[in-house]
Specification:
The complex is a heterodimer of chains A (365) and B (79). Chain A is mainly alpha-helical and 365 residues long. Chain A folds into two domains: 28-171, no CATH class; 177-332. Chain A has helices at 2-26, 28-53, 58-108, 115-121, 124-129, 136-159, 161-169, 177-216, 221-231, 237-253, 255-281, 289-328, 338-343, 351-364. The longest helix of chain B is centred in the last third of the chain and has 8 residues, at 71-78. Chain B has 79 residues and is α+β, with helices and mostly antiparallel strands. In chain B, β1 and β2 form a beta hairpin. The radius of gyration of chain B is 12 Å and the shape is globular. Helices cover 18% and strands 10% of the residues of chain B. The chains are: A mainly alpha (365), B alpha+beta (79). Chain A binds chain B through residues 162, 165-166, 168-170, 172-179, 181-182, 332-334, 348-350, 353-354, 356-358, 360-361, 364-365, and chain B through 5, 7, 9, 12-17, 20-23, 33, 51-58, 60, 73, 77. The site of one zinc ion has 8 residues of chain B, from loops.
């Protein structure tokens, strides 16, 4: 009897897992939006809680914070997007020529590379969207809808955080709440710390790049500064993009300018890697470089730019989960895991422990 | 400052908690599963019960002062 019941449950769980896996692949764009909203929720929650503690109504606090952020971003885009579109169009048409010039220069130094052909071979649509070319208007609309969805979802999550935590805690058996709390706190610290740190480093690289490019006299300095701030989010590859594109643009002016820009921007990358990033992130994101590399490669391969952007927070979250799991495997950990109890909520959670406790007492007598 | 949240158990090792979402706001006196008194802190030194779920279930004595969480029970077994 019991065995049949268990196997039914196993089949049911297996079926549910397969269905969720299938749904995951089908609904990936939507899940991506929800994930992004959760990341922003985590990053913004401390500020909302702070305003609530100061006596503001929760909804008002959320609206104020999101209004400021959306306002700043919209202002920046209005300033920058037209210039960026211009610059990218120039870049696309000029890159093969620039590459030839650069190739000739490198030839003079005795370095032979096939840059021109490679520049011609770049699939720009694929590079920008991670998928085949779609009509630009439609793509812009999709991006806009995505941004609106993320903002609305984030607002909803921020307003409803108390109910959300009640929902999570109802699955936690009595006595395990501190563990859940530690886990959630660690998650918040890592994901929130990552986002807040990223804002700081992006702002720094924006200001520095802008100053360098304006001083040297590279056209479209603002666009390149914004590009640098954005690609700074992508680990490893971002640094190269942030340096190469402005250098190529400077090269169009003169090789001397290009060398100055290259040297100054590369110097900044060193500064960011050695001084800024360790200071800003501290221990919150202390991931081994190899883990970062693998995470970015996998993320980029699976999801294009979105994957590369999500790689770092995902790796950080995985690390928290791993630490948590390792801790649970210690000798003090009880044999029953939370997953088991989640799947079988009809069984009294502490029954096994209760039996164990009674046995110990009997032995004592 | 009063304790806002915490974990406890009865002498039958039924764990409980207060102050967390969906749980009672203050410590309650009796175990809803067996009716025995709940223990929320060491009866001798007032230090809280261990946070770790495994430790919470296995602990019979306070790690701070060494006294039993359930003095009556110890008295019964020793006599
Ligand atoms: Zn009980
Ligand atoms: Zn004690």
């Amino acid at each position: 009897m019991i065995r049949i019941e268990i196997s039914y449950r196993a089949i049911l769980i297996l079926a549910l897992m397969l269905i969720s896996l299938w749904a995951l692949t089908k609904l990936w764009p939507i899940i991506l939006l929800i994930l992004t909203a959760f990341i922003f929720h985590t990053a913004l929650l401390p500020y909302v809680e702070w305003m609530v503690r100061k006596g503001l109504p929760r909804t008002l606090s959320v609206l104020l914070i999101l209004l400021v952020i959306v306002g700043v971003l919209a202002g920046l885009s209005a300033l920058v997007v037209p210039a960026m579109v211009d610059e990218f169009t120039n870049l696309k048409s000029d890159l093969p020529d620039d590459a030839r010039d650069l190739q000739n220069l490198l030839d003079d130094f005795g370095i032979h590379v096939e840059l021109e052909q490679r520049a011609r071979d770049i699939d720009w649509d694929h590079l920008i969207s991670g998928s085949a070319a779609v009509d630009y208007g439609q793509r812009a609309l999709t991006i806009l809808l995505g941004i609106i969805t993320v903002v609305v979802l984030t607002a909803y999550l921020l307003v409803d955080t108390p109910r959300l935590s009640r929902f999570v805690y109802q699955f936690v058996p009595p006595g395990r709440e501190p563990e859940m709390e530690h886990f959630l706190t660690a998650m918040n610290r890592v994901v929130g710390g990552y986002i807040r740190g990223q804002v700081v480093t992006s702002a720094c690289i924006f200001v520095y790049t802008l100053i360098v490019l304006l001083a040297v006299g590279v056209p479209n300095a603002v666009a390149f500064a914004v590009l640098a701030a954005f690609v700074d989010i992508i680990p490893l590859i971002g640094a190269t993009i942030a340096v190469v594109f402005p250098t190529v643009a400077a090269f169009r002016e003169s090789p001397t300018q290009a060398i100055i820009v290259l040297a100054l921007l590369m110097a900044y990358q060193q500064f960011e890697d050695r001084v800024l990033t360790p200071r800003v992130y501290g221990q919150t994101l202390n991931l081994p470089p190899l883990v970062v590399l693998v995470a970015v490669l996998i993320g980029g391969r699976l999801l294009g730019i979105a994957g590369a952007l999500l790689a770092m927070p995902a790796a950080a979250v995985a690390r928290v989960g791993f630490d948590y799991w390792m801790e649970r495997r210690g000798p003090a950990a009880p044999p029953t895991g939370p997953v088991e109890e989640l799947l079988a909520p009809d069984e009294p959670a502490m029954e096994k422990e209760a039996v164990r406790g009674r046995r110990t007492r009997r032995r004592k007598v | 400052m009063a304790v806002e949240r915490g974990v406890g158990k009865c002498e039958q090792n039924h764990a409980g908690s207060f102050g967390y979402p969906t749980r009672p706001e203050t410590p309650y006196d009796f175990c809803p599963q067996c009716g025995n008194p709940m223990v929320w802190s060491c009866p001798n030194c007032e230090s809280p019960l261990p946070d770790d779920p495994g430790e919470l279930v296995s602990a019979r004595f306070c790690r701070n002062c060494g006294s039993s969480y359930f003095p009556q029970e110890e008295g019964e077994t020793q006599s």
